[in-house]
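Researcher: Sequence recovery benchmark, item below. Answer with residues only.
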């Protein structure tokens, strides 16, 4: 009888300790669970690296861009062309204009920043910066610097050709008349940091 009473007494002494232990353990597990849920939730509120990059300015090194070459970079999910125009390419701008081949030779439509208007459509004559998206249905034109190739004809003096529907653009991105594309290629905002470094996505005027 004494043993039974002793066992009952021991059990009653252990129960409060066990209850405290279980209560503490449950509390700790609950707290860990809350922390575990909070971290992913907080991360979900922070913009992803891709989202930040989508609208962020892009720095470009053009130190190795030789005359006649084109460099393609991505800005806001779209291709941007940087073409180091040769003296011959610059001379062709007047040729296509004098031949009456262009729909908007003076770039009167507001498709470029004010500092990149006119015939050359660039801050510096040799380097043109264009959004590589056809203004017809958004296809990607190809760079065709050769003059008078059989598939483009004798009135082709070099520039950009859209294979989707046949739209043509000269070395400044000015659209030929009579093609599906209604307007010139767009010039994105950009500025020079140095002679060989520029930024796509920031205006020259804001520097």
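Model:
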């Amino acid at each position: 009888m004494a043993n039974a009473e002793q066992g009952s007494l021991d059990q009653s002494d252990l129960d409060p300790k066990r209850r405290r232990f279980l209560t503490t353990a449950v509390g700790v597990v609950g707290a860990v669970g809350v922390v575990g849920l909070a971290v992913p939730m907080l991360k979900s509120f922070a913009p992803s690296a891709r989202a930040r990059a989508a609208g962020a300015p892009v720095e470009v090194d053009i130190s190795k861009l030789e005359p006649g070459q084109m460099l393609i970079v991505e800005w806001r999910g779209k291709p941007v062309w940087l073409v180091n125009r040769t003296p011959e390419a610059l001379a062709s701008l007047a040729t296509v204009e004098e031949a009456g081949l262009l729909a908007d030779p003076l770039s009167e439509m507001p498709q470029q920043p004010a500092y990149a208007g006119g015939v050359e459509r660039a801050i510096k004559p040799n380097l043109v910066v264009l959004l590589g998206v056809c203004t017809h249905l958004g296809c990607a034109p190809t760079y065709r610097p050769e003059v008078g190739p059989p598939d483009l004809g004798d009135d082709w003096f070099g520039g950009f050709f859209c294979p989707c529907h046949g739209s043509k653009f000269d070395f400044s991105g000015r659209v030929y008349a009579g093609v599906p594309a209604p307007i010139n290629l767009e010039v994105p905002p950009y500025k020079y940091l140095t002679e060989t470094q520029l930024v796509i996505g920031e205006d020259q005027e804001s520097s």
